[in-house]
Amino acid sequence: QVQLIETGGGLVQAGGSLRLSCAASGRTVSTYVMHWFRQAPGKEREFVATISGSGSSTYYADSVKGRFTISRDNAKNTVYLQMNSLKPEDTAVYYCAADPSGGYSGTSWGRGTQVTVSS
């Protein structure tokens, strides 16, 4: 069983930056596909970014492409989400997910970290 803890959220002004971290424990996730999702109040959870186990492949939602960067440090069992040029519409709870198969079967989720972007 993988446990995930997200940190790094907070309150930032529009145009600012934050770096989220997702620390995994209980199992090495170096072969796992790792995802970031987010959920704004009153909205469904939505995909933000994905990174392959090696880190060589990344995918982004159109809404964050060019502003957010997902990365990982397998030696630290940690995944990151660098968020630049933040907008008020990026306000949400951000969740990390560890996906052993790449098909979401058996995925473990963290509890999330709140990101609030003020205008």
| Residue-averaged pLDDT | 96
Unreliable stretches covering 5 or more consecutive residues: none
Distance between the termini: 40 Å
User: Could you give a short account of the major beta sheet?
Assistant: 7 strands, mixed
Query: What is the share of helical residues?
Result: under 10%
Assembly form of the protein:
single chain
Spatial extent as radius of gyration: 13 Å
How would you describe this structure to a colleague?
The protein is built from no helices and 11 strands. The mean pLDDT is 96. The chain has 119 residues and is mainly β. The protein is 0% helix and 51% strand.
Features:
four-stranded antiparallel beta sheet; seven-stranded mixed beta sheet; 51% strand; 119 residues; 0% helix; mainly beta
Secondary structure elements and pairings:
Elements (H helix, E strand, L loop, with lengths): L2 E5 L2 E4 L4 E8 L7 E7 L6 E6 L6 E3 L7 E6 L4 E6 L8 E8 L8 E2 L3 E6 L1
Parallel strand pairs: 2-11
Antiparallel strand pairs: 1-3, 3-8, 4-5, 4-9, 5-6, 7-8, 9-10, 9-11
Quick structural gist:
The chain has no helices and eleven strands.
